[in-house]
Automatic annotation (TrEMBL):
Chain positions covered by the region annotation Disordered: 1-28
Name of the featured protein: 4-aminobutyrate aminotransferase
Cofactor(s) named in the record: pyridoxal 5'-phosphate
Assembly: Homodimer and homotetramer.
Organism: Lachancea fermentati
Keywords, comma-separated and alphabetical: Aminotransferase, Pyridoxal phosphate, Transferase
Family annotation (PANTHER family): 4-AMINOBUTYRATE AMINOTRANSFERASE, MITOCHONDRIAL (PTHR43206:SF1), AMINOTRANSFERASE (PTHR43206)
Length: 471
């Protein structure tokens, strides 16, 4: 019996769509009510989570979709997972929810055990964690940690703040409020808050009307696919982009304290960074004294066939900070250098310092992934699915441009000739019972759960073949 069958004996055997449009009439009615108290305009449909199970999401009209989007890549184990329901009913969860502690001042006596469960699944080389509330929050907290580390290294880790620093910071001026930058990459997405908005460069709608920091955006490598047939061209592309990174760091009008990168840009179009590129960035950050942050918010927790995508690159020495959220259902950053703990209390601090209830779920998710070997399953199923898509690409080459994600689990994407054709494909996939997401201007991205199996891949490819033939 497969893992999915053990988890979800009542999972549907196939999708079922009965409404002639999506959202259907009941979803439209419910969304209209919701729209009076909440911005419901981005909604695809109104979901019925009580009826959703495993790899299938059900809407208010009773339509049942095979879900390859999984709450924007944030459901690891499927809907109504019994192991997570058990964790949600535990005494420690009840305490965390009912008496939500202000962890910085009044940590619960079970917090160490909760964090130890989470740290069991930290990236290689990372031994400590600071928790947050969302992916964007995790990145903002990582920037704070990087800036405090950078300035402490300049000042001396054990030195007190000067009178001038204490006075000028109250006026938002130097040296108390130093001019420092974070380098990111074009097409990156790191969140929708203020500092994270300044390093996001995916779509205008993500950051219009926000004041922004004067921070540099380097070029992310744009590879030719298939990778194995374009090694020389792609190495040249890596070197071109690395030179841009070094030139920006050494010439930017304010010091670049940190660099942040996604190992695979997700919102920006599923753009991949090579092992060589990610290691070379480590070499550059060490040479130039820049904090190296890997954003694993979307790529982390098994979706690429490893628990953490950047582990494919075997970066040495380990990066400074690794941010996480989404599939872990929690958020924060991992680190290993104790100098990233600020020199004074109350510097990296807020009322809650994260969410213990979500940390409990994160620990349970990680344990299930390891115990059930779900990252390995994701790698196996991803290879199977990629092979099926490669066959479709041979049949419909213009509809499967730049097929990418080989040997990266189910983290698979491809391009269509235009955004209109991509949008039509996604619409028709939903009408045929497959919930799939897009990214960038014309890309399709697959983000199923880690319990997605070959039988689900077969269903999806059959639906996709039908839809592609019709558009």
């Amino acid at each position: 019996m497969s893992v999915c069958e053990k988890y979800y004996p009542s999972e549907p055997s196939k999708p079922s769509v009965t409404s002639s449009s999506i959202p259907g009439p009941k979803s439209q009615e419910e969304l209209s009510k919701l729209g009076k108290v909440f911005d419901a305009r981005p909604a695809y449909f109104m979901a019925d989570y009580e009826k959703s199970v495993g790899n299938y999401i059900v809407d208010a009209d009773g339509n049942t979709y095979l879900d390859l989007y999984a709450q924007i890549a944030s459901i690891a184990l499927g809907y109504n997972n019994p192991a997570l329901i058990k964790a949600a009913q535990s005494p420690e969860m009840i305490r965390a929810l009912v008496d939500r502690p202000a962890l910085g001042n009044f940590p619960s006596k079970d917090l160490t055990a909760i964090l130890e469960k989470l740290l069991k699944f930290a990236p290689k080389g990372q031994s400590m964690v600071w928790s947050g509330l969302s992916g964007a929050d995790a990145n903002e907290l990582a920037f704070k940690a990087a800036f405090m580390y950078y300035r402490s290294k300049q000042r001396g880790y054990d030195k007190e703040f000067s009178a001038e620093e204490n006075s000028t910071v109250m006026e938002n001026s130097t040296p108390g409020s130093p001019q420092l930058a974070v380098l990111s990459f074009k097409k990156a997405f790191h969140g929708r808050l203020f500092a994270s908005g300044s390093v996001t460069c995916s779509k205008p709608i993500h950051k219009l009307d926000f004041p922004a920091f004067n921070w540099p955006h380097a070029e992310y490598p744009a590879y030719k696919f298939p990778l194995e047939q374009n090694e020389d061209a792609n190495r040249a592309e890596d070197d071109r982009c690395l030179k841009i990174v070094e030139d920006l760091i050494t010439s930017w009008p304010i010091p670049v304290a940190a660099l942040i990168i996604e190992p695979i840009q997700s919102e920006g179009g599923d753009n991949h960074a090579s092992k060589y590129f990610l290691q070379s960035l480590r070499d550059l950050t060490l040479k130039l004294g820049v904090v190296y942050i890997i954003d694993e918010v979307q790529t982390g927790v098994g979706a690429t066939g490893k628990l953490w995508c950047h582990e494919y690159a075997e970066i040495q020495p380990p990066v400074d900070l690794v941010t996480f959220s989404k599939k872990f259902q929690s958020a924060g950053y991992f680190f290993h250098d104790p100098h990233f703990v600020p020199n004074k209390p109350y510097r990296q601090f807020n009322t809650w310092c994260g969410e213990p209830a979500r940390m409990i779920i994160a620990g349970a998710i990680g344990q299930e992934i390891v115990d059930k070997k779900l990252a390995e399953q994701c790698a196996r199923v991803g290879d199977y699915l990629f092979g099926k898509l490669s066959a479709l690409q041979e049949k419909y080459p213009t509809k499967f441009q730049n097929l990418r994600g080989k040997n990266r689990g189910t983290f698979i994407a491809w391009d269509l000739p235009s955004g209109a054709e991509r949008d039509a494909l996604l619409k028709n996939l939903k009408l045929n019972g497959c919930n799939v997401g897009g990214c960038a201007e014309k890309s399709v991205r697959l983000r199923p759960t880690l319990t997605f199996e070959e039988k689900h891949a077969d269903i999806f490819v059959d639906v996709l073949s039908k839809v592609v033939a019709e558009i």
